[in-house]
């Protein structure tokens, strides 16, 4: 995905069109 802030932070990853924490599962 391409979040408005650019790449996701170290503790986040892309889920569809937004970033979620690594510990969260993309559904």
UniProtKB/TrEMBL annotation:
Protein name, per record: O-superfamily conotoxin
Organism encoding this protein: Conus miliaris (Thousand-spot cone)
